[in-house]
Each structure stands twice: as structure tokens, then as C-alpha cells.
Amino acid sequence: MKIAVLLVLALCLPALLGAQQQTRYSSSNKEAVKYFATAYQNLDEHLYDEAIQNSLKAISEDSKFIEARLLLADLYRMKRMYKPAVEQYAKVISLSPEFNRGVYLKAAEMEIHDAGYAQAQQHLEKYLTYPDISPQNNTYAKKMLADAKFSIQAMTHPVPFKPINIGPEINTANDEYLPVATADEGTLIFTRKINNNEDFYKSEMINGKWNTATYLSNQINTEKYNEGAQSISQDGKYLFFTGCNRPDGLGRCDIYIAQKRGNDWGKPVDLNPPVNTSGWESQPSINADGRTLYFVSNRKGGYGGYDIWKSTLGEKGWGEPENLGPNINTPYNELSPFIHPDDSTLYFSSDGWPGLGSKDLFVSRMDKDGKWQKPENLGYPINTSGDEGGLSLTAAGDYAFFSSDNLKGLGGYDIYKFELPVKLRPHLVTYVKGFVKDVKTKAPLEAAIEIIDLESNLPVYQDYSDDEQGDFLATLTSGKNYALNISKSGYLFYSENFSLKNYKIKSPFNIVALLSPIEIGNKVILKNIFFDTNKFDLEKESKAELAKLIEFLGVNSTTRIEISGHTDNTGNHQGNQTLSENRAKSVYQYLVSKGIAPTRLIYKGYGETQPIASNTTEEDRAKNRRTEFMIITK
Looking at the DSSP assignment, which residues form a beta bridge with residue 404? Predict the structure, then answer.
């Protein structure tokens, strides 16, 4: 139930209805009563501006005319003119403190919108002393009291906030809002409204500056329908967005997906059930691996008006959406979810949790059991008595984008960037950006990309490099070790390791993966085969790489390989030779135990005799300590 909306209707004019039925008003001035009656008639005819003017005339005839002031206050309230509404409610209370108890609730609502939190607290506490308050009004009053108390504390402990307009290359005299950036911050996509039509625009970062924004695509933008509330995958190849009232939609607003094709985008596709329904689905946010979609819906089974839900992509498509539960959703409205690439920090907007008025921004963190914790308000002055929403973060998590129309920008809503306070930041995230090419021709290749969490042996990213440019991009969360495998039919696979244990902020990983064709003599360094120091027992983190090797041998069933072990030059020659041979043998035995025929495998130890780097630094010695395989028969 939309409690806040219902209360606006229920509380709008109860005192006036009573006043209309009175045989006497608080004023005996006939002209004042005449203007008041006309104002009330204007209200009945929805002529609100005329009603305001006639109420003002009634008050000018009799400044102590309570009913006229209350009507004027309610009219200002209906038109969201908070400050004058507060002034008129205050006059009503000063003229007759017990005229109508509902005045205290309505006055407090306007005072919170106008950042008058101390006065709102007093009026709410007064209102809650009255007997026989309806359960609905009682709940709403207590909710606003919590807002007032929170706001008083928040304003005495402000958080750092220095918003920076990102410039005329993106912001114009029109409205620009809902910005989202790719993980490398190379592309920013946002919504621009021109003549009440919403379309997507993009800007590229060149030499540290945003270039002039351009129309995103005729494939996605339309002249007839609004496109907005978008989320872009970390690599910039998939765009999830909201389309409303489209002929191919299921409800008023649906979620669509479009895939980038070279320099343009393919035709958007409706996600269909179970994500989209005949109701309202909007504001998507896709997680780092592109397999969990967070979105907003008013579908049945929620906690309030608009709730945040999620759907996970499986073998049969998007799964049945799950509500994020009462630690996120309230009986009011939760909107604008943004799941950070760390996959465990969620930012969203809500008017249900204690805040400074209207909608505030919050952050919730996932615990080790996968449960969302109760959210934290981002604080003042990030949040204000107005509406805050549409926050997104850089992958690094140190900066946030948002839009505002009250910071003296270039016109309407502008897009801003600010440094996020440390305590509000997500887990540290970096990214790996790569290009896949043929080792001989240097031509870009479309290849399968897989990144695996070595502790759990589960993939955290699976996709393909671009078929035209060969590029890919994936985010990595700190505190873990990852294996990267790149494979393509007819080629040896590529192996890389990224250790983010005790990771501190540094440059992202940029690689060029050169794939070698399956030819005799070609080698692959298995960078995710691990042994303890001076030992030859395979560590459990090696299983993912070994599974990839088994898969390769299964696909290429006539191939025979040599498994080789190598060491650095530390220690004596014979010890290194023995250790390298035992390590190669351990890999051989593992493969045989998994069904690979022994006749397809040989193993050798080369000790320190075949270094690929100098042995003068620890980093180079680590490169020399390796396991390889080489094609000996195709």
C-alpha cells in the first residue's frame, strides 16, 4: 500500500470539510467569508491558483480568519510550495492551537520538506499526544518523527561533499541526469530530456577530459517514446534500460536490453516474463558479471509501493525475481538501485528509511552469508530535504555521479561528480582490460573469456571478446586471487593470474593476449598451477587451471603434450632438477586420474636450465618458477 500517497489524499482537506459544514466561521467579516466561499468553490473545480488568490483576499479582509488560512496552507501543500505552507500552518496554530489536530501532522510534513526539523519534531510530538489517532496516521507521524530526529543529528555531523559540475561537454540548458560509466571510466551514458522526450547520449573520455556528448543510437532512441533509467555492463557492451508504453512492451514500463555491435547498438529486446509484467518495471542495474539484474517494480508480493527486486540469469534465461527483503524495502518506496561492481554494496533511494525528507540516498552491504544489511543514510549534505536519486559510482568506488537542479548549473538538471566519503565506499575494485589477437597476424579474435575465483573455483566473469576489435573488460574485487583463461577453437588457450590479496590502489591490469595456433612446439605457461615452496603437491587453487587443460585435451582429442616443470636458480642444480620433475609428474598424475590417457602425456623436469627472465629479482625468479605444456603431436 502506498501509505504516503494515501495520506496526502486523506489529510488534504479534512478541516475544511468540517469548516464548510459549520454554521459559523472564525470570521464575521462578510467580504472575507465571501472570498473564502469562492476559494472553496475554486478548489472544488480544481482551479488551484484562483483558490489561492481568493484565500489571500479573504485573509486580507480578516487576518485572523482561521479557515481561510488553513485552506491557503492546504493549497500551498498540494502545490508543493513548502515554505508558504509552513508559514500558514504556523499562523493557524498561533491563532487557535486546538482548532484541528490534523494541522500539526500536515505542518510537520511541510516543515520536513522545508528542512525545519526541530519545529517538525515539536509538532509531531504534540500530534501523537492526541487520543484515537488512526493507525495509518499514527504510523505516518512516527515515521516522520524518526526523520526529524535523524535529520537534526545528521545536520550536526555533516559528511564531506564537494560536487563538481562535469562541464558543458555533457551539461546543457536541457535536463541531463541518470549518468552511468563503464568500469574504465572511458564512456559515460546519460539521459537528456529535450521537449519532454528522453533519449540517451554518450561521452567518451579522451586525454582525461569528456568530449562533447553525442546521440547514442537510432537503434535505441526513439522520437515517440521515452528511454531512460539505464545501466551499462562494466565492459560497455550491454545496455539495460527502461522503455515505457512501447508497442512490444508488456506493461506501462518494461526493461529492455541492447548489445553493442561494433560502433553502434543492436535492436533492443524486451526481457519478457518473469522480469517484465503487466505492471511497472524500471531502473535496472546489472551486476559485474552480467548475470544478476536489480530493478524496481510495483508487482505483487512486495513490501510497499515500489520495491527493489533481483533476477538471476540461468541456462533457461532470467529467473523468477526475488524481493530484496525488509532490510532494503519498506512500506514506502525504494528506487534507483545501483549495484557496485564489488557485487556486495548496493546504493539506492528511499523515502521509507529515516532521512532528511522526501527521498534520500542509502547504502547497504551484503554480509558473508549473502544477506543485505540494514541501510545507512549517506548523510547531510549529500542528502537534503529534497529528492535525491540516480546515484552511480566509478568502479574504483572513490567517486560518485549524480544529477541536481539546485546547484546553479548550466540549466535544469546537470550531472555532477563528487568524492565519496571513505566510510561510504564499496570494496576496492580494479579491472582487467585486454585485447585478444592472433600471435602471428595480430588480427583481433573473438574468444571465450573466463575469470575464476581461485578460492571457490567458481567463475566470476564469462563472456566473449569483441569479434571486431578483440577487446574485453572485467572487474575484479580486492581480497581474492583470480585465474584468467582465454580460449578459442584451433588455438592454445591463454592463462594469466591476478593476485588481489592485500591489494592497494594501483593501476588496473592491461594485457594483450596473443593466442598461438595448435602447432607442434607451441607452448602455454600455466600461470595458475600452484605448489608450496620446495614442494610438489598441487594446491587446491590449481584445480580451475587443470580443468581448463582437461577441457582442451578433450576438445583436441588427437593432441599429445609434454608437461614441463621449471625452477629459478636458487638452491643446487640437482635439487632444482628433481623438484621440477616431481612437479611436472604431479600434473601428469592428476590428468591421468581424471581420465586423460597416459599415452597422450609425457612429463619432464628442466630445473633452472630454461629461464624466461633473469634471476636477479624476486619478480623475475617467480616467472622462472613455472609449469608449461607443449604440443608434441597434433
Answer: 414
Amino acid at 361: L
- Counting Cβ atoms within 10 Å, is residue 429 exposed (0-12), middle (13-18) or buried (19+)? buried
pLDDT tier for residue 527 given thresholds of 50, 70 and 90: very high
pLDDT tens digits, one per residue of 46-102:
999 999 999 999 999 999 999 999 999 999 999 999 999 999 999 999 999 999 999
Mean pLDDT computed over 504-525: 91
Q: CA gyration radius for the chain?
A: 32
18: left (phi over 0), alpha (psi -120 to 50) or beta: alpha
pLDDT digits (tens, 9 = 90+) for 16-36: 444 444 448 999 999 999 999
Instruction: Give the integer Cα–Cα distance in Å for 512 and 496.
Output: 11
Rounded to the nearest angstrom, the gap between the alpha carbon of residue 186 and the centroid of all alpha carbons in its chain is 18
Can you give 560-613 as a three-state secondary structure string? Answer: EEEEEEECCCCCCHHHHHHHHHHHHHHHHHHHHHCCCCHHHEEEEECCCCCCCC
Indicate the SS3 state at residue 143.
helix
pLDDT in tens, 562-593: 999 999 999 899 999 999 999 999 999 999 99
CB crowding 399-427: b at 16 or more within 10 Å, else e: bbbbbbeeeebbebbbbbbbebeeebbbb
Output the CA angle 438-439-445, nearest 5 degrees.
Answer: 15
pLDDT band at 359 (very low <50, low <70, confident <90, very high): very high
Written as one letter, the residue type at 202 is K
AA identity, residue 138 = N
Residue carrying C-alpha cell 568500469: 183
Gap between the Cα atoms of 180 and 134, Å rounded: 43
Which H or E run contains 630?
A: strand 626-633
| Cell numbers describing residue 371 | 544477506
Q: What does each C-alpha distance from 261 to 268, 435, 449, 475 come to in angstroms?
A: 12, 17, 18, 21
Q: Report DSSP letters for 286-302, one per residue.
A: E-TTS-EEEEEE--TT-
Locate 490 and state its grid cell: 584451433
The answer to whether the beta carbons of residues 340 and 347 sit under 8 Å apart is yes
User: Whole-angstrom Cα distance, residue 424 to residue 399?
Assistant: 11
Q: Could you tell me if 415 and 401 are in contact, meaning their C-beta atoms sit under 8 angstroms apart?
A: yes
pLDDT of 14 > 90? The answer is no
